[in-house]
Amino acid sequence: MFKSGFVTLIGRTNVGKSTLINLLVGEKVAAIANKVQTTRTAIKGIVNRENSQIIFTDTPGIHKPKTKLNETMIETSFGSIPDSDIILFLIEANSKEIGKGDRIILDKIKEAKRKTILIINKIDLVPKDTLLNLIDMYQKEYDFIAVIPISAKKEKYKNIILDEIEKNLKEGPAYYDMEEYTDQTLRQLAEETIREKALKVLDQEVPHGIYVEVEKMELRQNKKGEDIYDVEATIYCLRNSHKGIIIGKNGEMLKRIGTMARHDMEHNFGVKINLKTWVKVKEDWQENDSIVNKFKLKK
Description:
Helix content is 34%, strand content 25%.
């Protein structure tokens, strides 16, 4: 019997959702950085197993919205819950209580009455009794089909989670080709890769205000007959001062971002990349409907 279904991964910002989805999928589908709001849209990752196809949706972290972009991110996260067959609710092991953000998510899960697996991440940071108290606290709130304590960076938890999900799926078809691991286009993956590298190396005040747009992505053959993608991308930022930081002294910061992104893309795409990047100021982009609409949940 072949099973399939849609699984939404939801949690507060910076709890490790993108790290977990990349672990489960076994490929880089979501940007990872040690900063809040790294994921801005619902990213699908596809896991093909012998008897099942699991379609994961990694959602933006729940946070207090301050712009149209933030509001859209929250809508995207909560909008994915009703369409899920199973929810993975990710929390941190060092939580002493059910905080405001987790409480909001829990209420949405209760409202949707969906099968939910509670994933407790970063268990290496707390003693066992703290973990047991946290499990007891959450089990009193909702009838989870499973509670799985993990460290999202460790491979050994991958099949434990996938087996539990597969066990709770219904019989169904493969919705995507069995060779696919994401519904994102190469262009979108390139944008995510560049943004991730920028998030990793830039100063604290800059990351939330950047947006990457790939304007050109063309495949050609070089003189050796090898395939090569010409990629041209613009990094948009909110202020002139941010532009200076992104470019860096003698262009060193932008060069570093580009080199890191190119190496990652070549590894993930399996093809040579010729990457060119520019930086432009677009002060209102977080309130710009034409840009913000790109982050809305695609049904």
